[in-house]
Amino acid sequence: MTEDATTVRRTGVSTAPRTAAMWAAVDGVVRERSAELGRPLRVIDLGGGTGGLAVPLAVAGHDVTVVDPSPDALASLRRRAAEAQASSRVSAVQGDAETLASLVGRDRPDLVLCHGTLEYVDDPEATLRLIAGVLAPGGILSLVVPQRSAAVIARALAGQFAQARAALDRPDGRWGDADPVPRRFDRSAVLALVEAAGLTPTEAHGIRIFSDLVPSALVDSDADRTALLDLERAVVSHPEFAVLADLGTSLHVIATRT
Question: Do 184 and 172 meet the contact criterion of CB atoms below 8 Å apart?
Fold first, then answer.
């Protein structure tokens, strides 16, 4: 195997420790919904940046529109799509949640991805309402947000006990004003926001339970990465220890519009 091929394996969305669990859930609902409809899906990736998810979905045959405020990210997206020979199925639009309605005509999206975006918007509740408003009946939202609990544990393990207490107590879940993440969420609050927007959660589980805590030097081989991913999957599905999923760095919620 060449060095370039090895790099692809290590950084692919389906195999990288930070993204594999999320991708498995997205891929599962995409396959199921596409089979139900008998056609490729129409997808909007809100805040999709450089296309880490958009391009794999386009390669799988789906039509993806990435909406992002950064022109530089969208330029990288176009290059990535071209390299994957998926440019015909990827559209890049500079915008944000407020522009969603103007992008959608009669062909409403079957899937909206909102990964690593809700923590940056001014009004998470309004953003989820906008997403619900553009989804087709039976459409799916895939939402990934940072969890407060993981920040508390990470700061404590780093010996930053005051910061851990701040993340625990502050309404925004930040460990301090220097925290680069503007907002963290609790599971119950996220599910309440999703339901208030008129969507029905069908899955909710923590991701990156161990992958952000284990030093990268300890997962340097393919065997190590595979073992780590297997452990993450086992914890999420284990009937006695599923509570550990609440400690994941991020929470992944799948919800539908009825």
Answer: yes
pLDDT in tens, the chain (258 residues): 333 333 333 347 877 767 888 898 999 999 999 999 999 999 999 999 999 999 999 999 999 999 999 999 999 999 999 999 999 999 999 999 999 988 887 889 999 999 999 999 999 999 999 999 999 999 999 999 999 999 999 999 999 999 999 999 999 999 999 999 999 999 999 999 999 999 999 999 888 877 777 777 777 788 888 888 788 777 766 767 767 777 789 999 999 998
What amino acid occupies position 41?
Answer: L
pTM higher than the cut 0.85: yes
| Angle subtended by helix axes 187-196 and 124-134, to nearest 10 | 50
Q: How far apart are CA 242 and CA 21, in angstroms?
A: 14
Let me know if 152 is exposed, middle or buried by CB neighbors in 10 A (0-12, 13-18, 19+).
buried
Residue 179 CA to residue 184 CA, distance in Å, equals: 11
